[in-house]
Amino acid sequence: MNTISNDELINKAKSIIKPHEVKHGFVASNCGCSLMTNEGNIYLGVAIDTCSSMGFCAEHGAIAAMITGGEYKIKKIVAVLEDGQILPPCGGCREFIYQIDGDNLETEVIIGENKVVKLREFYSRIHGMKTSDTRKR
């Protein structure tokens, strides 16, 4: 399996950020996401922010690319804004990652330059799930 460092994954996310503004509050590509699957493949995606609910987070774009590639299990993931700020996945993205494959509770989520937590940790804080709980919904 191929593997890359967290810094390399962060740089890949930064490399695809190319903000583009058009009419009516629409902004494309102001946030980039890169993820590495359990097989070591890298998938990228950008956010599309619209003035309606039709937009989506960068994580959705990267996950869609991953599924197109026939994979479902995420080893690690990161999202980066155009100013370089690393941000954790929103609640919707956390749930989306989990729903794609229950084993994704073990996904390493990069939330800072030197800070990584498992997706499971977000659920333990929100839902009272024990970090050792391996049940699937």
TrEMBL record:
Residues 29-101 form the CMP/dCMP-type deaminase domain. GO terms for molecular function: cytidine deaminase activity; zinc ion binding. One of its GO terms (biological process) is nucleobase-containing small molecule metabolic process. Pfam families: dCMP_cyt_deam_1. One of its GO terms (cellular component) is cytosol. CDD domains: cytidine_deaminase (cd01283). Belongs to the cytidine and deoxycytidylate deaminase family. This is Cytidine deaminase. It comes from Candidatus Nomurabacteria bacterium CG_4_9_14_0_2_um_filter_32_10.
